[in-house]
Design a protein that fits this description.
The protein contains 4 helices and 6 strands, in the order αβαββαβββα. It has about 180 residues and is α/β, with parallel strands linked by helices. The chain has a 6-stranded parallel β-sheet, sandwiched between helices.
Length: about 180
């Protein structure tokens, strides 16, 4: 298959994703916060497969809301309808998201292989916000400029030391719910 044909297919898939997003965005305005006080922050992720899957896991685990930084649209298809159930908060830059979380009393965490204590050995506050960066480039900001951000790691025993971002988000949400029980009340 030629590169021109591949570009045409990618453009078509992107347009389909944008159409799905526009159709489901209005339903998201009516979404109610999940039963847990945790928040997922997606920092400049690719607008394809992973974001929808993270909405799906967030809905399953009762996540309060998802903050999207630098993401204009995404394909909600892989979320199997979860976009209409989990509130989405959109930010242009990370600073606005960070300020919002801190003002609401959240403890923000970034996850990096081998950096920080293992998540299962760390007592997570009820108001935890978990930040996930771009699939290739990581987070879009310098963590040292944001003094409230803490580091966590998901222990990995293979050679690649890399998890898919939607898998990592699911693991973190599971651990949060394991520590805080059925609900946050």
């Amino acid at each position: 298959m030629g590169s021109h044909k591949i570009r045409q297919m990618m453009k078509s898939e992107r347009e389909t994703a944008k159409r799905r997003f526009r159709q489901q965005r209005n339903k998201n305005y009516l979404a109610q916060p999940g039963i847990h006080d945790c928040i997922i922050v997606l920092d400049h992720l690719k607008p394809t497969y992973n974001i929808g899957k993270i909405f799906r896991s967030s809905e399953a685990f009762g996540c309060r809301e998802i903050h999207l930084v630098g993401i204009d649209f995404f394909d909600p298809g892989p979320g199997m309808g979860a976009f209409k159930w989990v509130p989405a908060v959109f930010h242009t830059e990370f600073f606005a998201c960070y300020t919002d979380l801190i003002n609401k009393g959240y403890t923000p965490y970034i996850l990096e292989p081998g950096q920080g204590p293992p998540v299962m050995d760390t007592p997570l506050p009820k108001k935890s916000a978990f930040i996930f960066g771009h699939e290739e480039f990581g987070i879009s900001f310098e963590p040292g400029l944001f003094p409230e951000i803490k580091r966590l790691t998901i222990p990995q025993y293979g050679k690649s030391q890399s998890l898919n971002v939607s898998v990592a988000a699911s693991i973190i949400l599971y651990e949060y719910v394991r520590q805080h029980g059925k609900n946050s009340s």
